Amino acid sequence: MGKTESFIEYQRHLFAIAYRMLGSAMDAEEMVQETYLRWQADPTLPSSPKAYLSTIVTRLCIDHLRAAHTRNEHYVGEWLPEPLLTEGQPDLTEQVELADSLSLAFGVILRSLSPTERAAYLLREVFDYDYAEVAHILQTSEANCRQMVSRAKSHLQQRRPRFDVPPAQRDKLFFEFSQACQSGDLNRLLHVLAADAVVRSDGGGKAKAALNAVHGADKVARFMLGLMKQMTPDMRIRVAEVNGQRAVLLLNNGQLFSAITFDYTPTYIREIDIVVNPDKLRSLAQALG
After folding, report:
1. How far apart (Å, rounded) are the C-alpha atoms in residues 35 and 64?
2. Phi then psi dihedrals of residue 187, to 5 deg
3. pLDDT of 190-227, one tens digit each?
4. How far apart are CA 162 and CA 168, in angstroms?
5. Is the separation of the CB atoms in 20 and 82 below 8 Å?
6. Residues 133/135/137/138 CA torsion (nearest 10 deg)
7. Radius of gyration, CA atoms only, the chain
8. What is the pLDDT of residues 261-287, one digit of tens each?
9. At what angle do helices 167-183 and 217-229 cross, to 10 degrees?
């Protein structure tokens, strides 16, 4: 197998790592392309192309995150990952760990980890690399990798306890939420929201959005009903699979205007994430055709 064929075999895997590291499909594609260029420039053919390519893309992502740190400090309002269309892409979501790590809510708390901790956690807990492989990729010891993963797991669990919510239950909560919003029924909406529910809106300073997260079921419910009242006859709703879960897409005159995703407990919706930043919707709009 030639070098190009070897790269193609692992291209989707490399993108999956890069997207979770960066929270941006566009940036992830750039990292994957740079990985290909470096792969082609190396005259050798490593015994394990997957390990070699994973090392390149991970280190590129770490460097990218460090370089972007100052720029991100000045981001306007709430930051959310770039929504990604996952319909017809089972390689991104076929395992529970892969699907859970793809949600926008999870991407927000991943951002609170350092770039190296983020890489260690994702490689070990999501992509199932053993500690020896993670240590080689990150150029550190296995003991240090274990410590980083342990700290990251503890931090993430405190910020976002993990629940295994069956797809049928998510669909039920999604349906109840949709019906309550469309009917303007505040009480019905409150019944599907966790008491500590939160809604985040990402406009990036380029579209109208709440600058701060809205906390509490009552405030979240009233916020969402307020958004529904702003719907015009030129707007329509489309439901699609985004970041591994059913999402609401709002189109204005046929153009994608916002993407709304949800995070669940077994009995409630605990987080609503709304992306209206046009830069972050560009890749999703193109994927929708």
Report:
1. 13
2. -65, -40
3. 999 999 999 999 999 999 999 999 999 999 999 999 99
4. 17
5. no
6. 160
7. 20
8. 999 999 999 999 999 999 999 999 999
9. 60
